[in-house]
Specification:
Oligomer: single chain
Number of strands: 2
Shape: elongated
Radius of gyration: 16 Å
Distance between the termini: 47 Å
Largest sheet: 2 strands, antiparallel
Structural class: mainly alpha
């Protein structure tokens, strides 16, 4: 069925962030539930990625997918805070 979320998973292309070829399945779910934020830029010329995203993700998810990435310093501070809280909680 063409509407299945896995229909394009076998397609491959070069990932500009990783520097090597990856399957669409990696871009669709790169170790988390939501796709990579660059999915539309990378796959837009290959197939109708906008329709794919609208069909398989909610408006809230789409907003998260398209949101600009956090700046690296903010991400590092957030990770440090999480680690500190986890350490304070103890085993």
């Amino acid at each position: 069925m063409a509407d299945e979320i896995t229909a394009h998973d076998g397609r491959q292309r070069r990932c500009p962030m990783l520097g090597h070829d990856v399957p669409f399945s990696y871009c669709r779910a790169p170790g988390r539930r939501l796709p990579c934020g660059r999915i539309a830029d990378c796959w837009g010329e290959t197939f109708d990625i906008a329709a794919f995203i609208r069909r398989h993700f909610s408006q809230d998810d789409i907003a998260r997918i398209l949101a600009p990435p956090k700046d690296k310093a903010a991400s590092l501070i957030e990770l440090i805070e999480k680690a500190r809280k986890a350490n304070e909680s103890g085993p």
